[in-house]
Amino acid sequence: MRRRLPSVIRLAIVMTAGLVIALAGQANAATMGDHFTVIFTETLPNPGAVASADITLGPPAGSLFSISGFTAISGTGVCITCGLTSEVLTAVFFDGATLGLTGDLTGTFLGQNGGRHSFDLTLTNRPSATWFFTDVHIDGGFTDTTQGTYRTVAASVPEPSTLLLLGSALAALAAWRRPD
């Protein structure tokens, strides 16, 4: 004869499993030091050209995160960091809820022929998720502009706390279903 667990114990196990599963969902929230890849797709003047950059989240600034690192913007015919001489990250922020970016990343770089450039990468948060890149050729006296859309991809490596929470939830479910 199979003995059933008292309903109070079953309810406690189910509530604990639900809490652990809910906390596991919250473990995926953005935190300082997280890494993301931003994929830029150009709409003008070269539709479909793609470039990417890696960002690292800095300390929270209200409901947004500052950016402590922005590296390796490269892709089809683009390599800003190849000759990057300066970058200012203090005016660009990451929204952990939407995975969107907002603000301006500015700096200077040396072009392929050694010409000096200054740039302004303006980013708008979702739902539009657009970018505008203004490249001022300091030595040549002219300006190029490009624009497009972006998407942000979170790192795919699971955090140890997420795995611990998932394991606890599975153990609770197994204990609930195990016959006495």
Description of the structure:
The chain is α+β, with helices and mostly antiparallel strands. The protein folds into 2 domains: 7-27 and 159-177; 35-154, no CATH class. It contains 2 helices and 10 strands, in the order H-E-E-E-E-E-E-E-E-E-E-H. Helix 1 (7-26) packs antiparallel against helix 2. The longest helix is centred in the first third of the chain and has 20 residues, at 7-26. The model is unreliable at 22-28 (pLDDT under 50).
Brief digest:
This protein is α+β, with helices and mostly antiparallel strands and 180 residues long.
Per-chain topology:
Elements: H1 7-26, E1 35-44, E2 50-61, E3 64-75, E4 78-79, E5 84-88, E6 92-95, E7 100-110, E8 116-123, E9 130-137, E10 142-154, H2 160-177
Antiparallel strand pairs: 1-2, 1-10, 2-3, 3-4, 3-6, 5-7, 6-7, 7-8, 8-9, 9-10
Helix pairs in contact: 1-2
Structural domain count: 2
Poorly predicted spans: 22-28
How large is the radius of gyration? Answer: 23 Å
Note the run of SSEs as H and E.
HEEEEEEEEEEH
Task: Quote the distance from N terminus to C terminus.
Answer: 10 Å
The computed structural class is: alpha+beta
Shape: elongated
Kindly report the oligomeric state of this protein.
single chain
Q: What's the number of helices?
A: 2
Number of separate strands: 10
Give average pLDDT, whole number.
Answer: 79
In what range is the share of β-strand residues? Answer: over 45%
Q: How would you characterize the largest beta sheet?
A: 8 strands, antiparallel, barrel
